[in-house]
Amino acid sequence: MDIARAKAIAESPVMEKVTYEGTPIYIQHVDEENETARIYPLDRPENEQTVPLRSLMEQ
Predict the structure, then answer these.
(1) Which residue range is the domain that position 44 belongs to?
(2) pLDDT in tens, 4-20
């Protein structure tokens, strides 16, 4: 996923369907400099992690 799209999703009040390794996730924050995103699985919000933007897929 590109930086601009990831930021738009993170800032939008509408929940977009995005996955990380097949798991539906929520994007909390996008780090443009490192091209990463802070995410968590929708069913496990306690499992926050930082992942490369290229590993996120929009459905």
Answers:
(1) 3-58
(2) 999 999 999 988 999 99
